[in-house]
Amino acid sequence: MNRGPRSDDPTSTRPGAVRRTLEQPEKTRRWPSLDLGAPWVSGVLGAVQALVFSLAVVVVPAIAMAVAANAQLSAVTSGWTAAVPVAARLWLLGHGAPLHTGAATVTLVPLGITAVAVFAVLVSARRTIVATRSALWTAVATYVVGVLLVALATGSTDGLQLASSVVGGLVVALLGLGWGLLTGPEPGPLVAQARALVARVPQLLRVGVRGALSAAAVLGVLAGLLTLFWVLMGWSTVADVLSDLSLDAASTISLGIAQLAVLPNLAVLAVTWLAGPGFSVGSGTHFGPDFVTSGPLPAIPLLGALPAPSTGGGIALWAPVLVVVAGICGGWAATRRTDSLVWWHVVPLAGLVGVGSGLVTAIMVGLASGVAGPGRLADVGASPVYLGGCVAAQTGLGALLVLLATRAEVHAAVAAAWRSVRGRGSAGGDAEVDPGAGGAGSSTGEGSGTEAPGEETAGAAPTKGASTTTSTSTAAPAPTTPPQSVSEDL
User: Fold this and answer.
1) How far from chain centre, in Å, is Cα 198?
2) Where does residue 217 rank: exposed (0-12), middle (13-18), buried (19+ CB within 10 A)?
3) DSSP alpha helices (H): ranges in 305-383?
């Protein structure tokens, strides 16, 4: 007997007869994915690259010199492992961290190492890091943490050393990253955001900062040329010091690298010579355009390039004029970027150029000065506050001169003031002449008042008409024939 299709038969046509099976998906645990192409990842990689590069520039030569020295001494064990922490401490000194030695605490920053660190960050920013805010801040944080780790690895436990390492790493990272990302070949959103932020700054302040940086740059070029002149003039002394030291090839190379690290310091101190105050290299010494007082110095070849005692006085006293020229260049750069300006704004604009360039110079001199070693080398450099004030006054004067000479608004204001003064002077002169003219006018007025009716009745006063002509024109002779009427006489 056929009972029809079964209920579990898939071919069954009854609606309720079909058995439906729901497949439940398997539950899998998903971990958050790491996007290696995110901008912040480029920031981390770029900061690590800059750290490794700048640290290798200092550490690798130190290792090579240590290996070469041990090979010449036929040492059993290589001392390159001891050279690594010393080089790392010098690298930290380039970031502003004090270096504790057995004899003294060195605080003089080798600006050559600082320049290498900034350059490494700049190149990494241009080649690796994406120009976004997330990449910028992750790069800054990574670099600062890296500097702090190097300080801890070298045994730095002093709070001042650690704090100086963090601050120095932050400054180097911001300088290099800001410069590299804002001037990179592929501008990103960070460039547009920076431009929008700068647009909110008042125009006078923007132009003043640009002029200050221009003046500081010109002053740096002049100081570099002066340093080159010093080296060329003292090259014989430098050669004598090298020959007296009797160094081998490895030691000569290591000494040369060490001097390159502090050569920018000499260029910065040359700014103090140009501005007038001068600088000192050792207690009781003075190197300035007015006079030079030298003393016993260590046998370092670079110190042979210091100004000789015969260079003080004479034409060197005119050296501050070059600082004024730098201010003129800064003022010219500021006025080129300004379309319209209220005439009296030239005074605060020149002040901004002077104060900005003085501040930059004071910071650089503060870094290039300090304790360079024990004994007499405990006093190297100049006072950054005093020097910054001198540079600010001199560059501000130069900027004010060029602004007064080139701004059309100032010329228009001076011309208007001159016209006003001349107008007041002529008005005062007229006021002094008015009493006599008023008397003649009154007599004329009286004659006119007397003769006015006579015009209606002619022939009333020919005598008055003749007298009027005589009083008004004293140089001309009186007519021989009386006028026909008063109106013709007038």
Assistant:
1) 16
2) middle
3) 320-336, 346-368
What DSSP string runs through 65-132?
A: HHHHHHHHTT-SS--HHHHHHHHHHHHHHTTT--EE-SS-EE----HHHHHHHHHHHHHHHHHT--SS
Q: With 80 as the cut, is the pLDDT of residue 476 above it? A: no
201: how many CB neighbours lie within 10 A of its CB?
11
Location of structure tokens 């030569």: 61
Q: How far is it, in rounded angstroms, from Cα 467 to Cα 228?
A: 90
Mark out the alpha helices in 183-248 (DSSP H runs).
Answer: 189-199, 203-233, 235-245
What is the predicted pLDDT for the residue at 478? 45
Q: Which tokens go with 376?
A: 């007499």
Rounded to whole angstroms, what are the CA distances from 61 to 67, 86, 114, 150?
10, 12, 17, 18
Query: Per-residue pLDDT tens for 53-90?
Result: 999 999 988 888 877 777 666 544 556 778 899 999 99
Query: What does the pLDDT read at residue 428?
Result: 61
Residues whose CB falls within 8 Å of the CB of residue 152, separated by 6 or more in sequence, listed in order: 162
Give the pTM: 0.77
pLDDT in tens, 243-274: 888 887 777 888 888 899 999 999 999 999 99
- Dist CA 158 CA 151 (whole Å): 10
Mean pLDDT of the chain: 80
Q: Is residue 426 within a helix (H) or strand (E), and if so which, with residue range? A: helix 408-456
With 0-12 CB in 10 A as exposed, 13-18 as middle and 19+ as buried, what is 307? buried
As a whole number of angstroms, the distance between CA 272 and CA 361 comes to 9
